[in-house]
Amino acid sequence: MPKRKTSTEATRQATIDRDPVLQGILKAISLKRLRPGMKLGEIELASVFGTNRTHIRQVLSHLGSLDLVTLIPNRGAFISQHSADEARAIFEARKILERAAISGAIDNLTVETARTLRQLVAAERSHAHHDRWEGLDFSAGFHVEIARLAGNPVLVKFMEELALRTSLLIAQFEPAGGEDHCPDAHPGIADRILARDKVGAVGAMEKHLAEMQARLRLDGEADAPVDIAAIFHELGVSRQPKMANRLAKERQRSSPPR
To answer: Widest CA span of the chain, in angstroms?
Structure first.
């Protein structure tokens, strides 16, 4: 049998999930600022977020466990890249999980869970077209909430991870300037769930996923190198002068003599 998490392990998991460095990297991925294949330098990230390299390694290791970052010995950490076939496989997996989530959510539908779903759709509508990061966060949250309403915590965990991987696919394959149409599709899905229409809800969800996949350009070309620190600076993360100076000295000490 799989080992059950202790309360300490669960607390540690919740802590890393809320970590500002982790959230900053996920935000940059979702906003297509950090692109697949880009290197995440420990020194640069530590300088930007005002922390140390040990903390950065912990975050990168966690992202690696989610397949969002690829860790290569003696080379460093890179935003993961998926092939076109892997992208299709991820969407196929989502179809299976979304179908199960919808079925469970309808079976467990109560006055309270119906209210929760309506509130989520209303909140997503109110934020649509205002803040791109919040919009993407609400979009992923809609799918995760359906899994949560199904009452299966394992399903919730899988849905959270697939939602993150889908964000990475969008960052890698969707053309620049692509718009998020999820706020337009989600109300129809929710209405069918509230009407206990499993066939209609599953059909609406599969159409939604197909439209998401159709916006991806699976033959996309690689992007030119960019300044990692500049990306986070533009996203509102201020450089930390003291930490930057200390890490600059560390970089000098670790550089081989010429």
So the answer is: 71
The domain spans of the chain are 7-80+227-254, 84-214
CB 149 within 8 A of CB 104: yes
Q: Which residue type does 141 have?
A: G
pTM: 0.70
Fold entry, domain 7-80+227-254: Arc Repressor Mutant, subunit A (1.10.10)
Q: What is the pLDDT of residue 1?
A: 45
Residue corresponding to tokens 């092939």: 83
Burial class from Cβ neighbours inside 10 Å (0-12, 13-18, 19+) for residue 194 reads middle
Q: Is the pLDDT of residue 18 over 60?
A: yes
From CA 155, how far away is CA 163, in angstroms rounded? 12
CA distance 197 to 213: 24
SS3 assignment, position 219:
coil
DSSP states along 17-52: HT-HHHHHHHHHHHTTSSPTT-EE-HHHHHHHHT--
What is the per-residue pLDDT across 219-241, written as a single tens digit (0 to 9) for each? Answer: 755 455 567 777 777 777 765 55
Surface-to-core class of residue 126, CB atoms within 10 Å of its CB (0-12 exposed, 13-18 middle, 19+ buried): exposed
CATH number assigned to the domain covering 84-214:
1.20.120.530
Is 183:139 a contact under the CB 8 Å cutoff?
A: yes
Per cent of the chain over pLDDT 90 is: 47
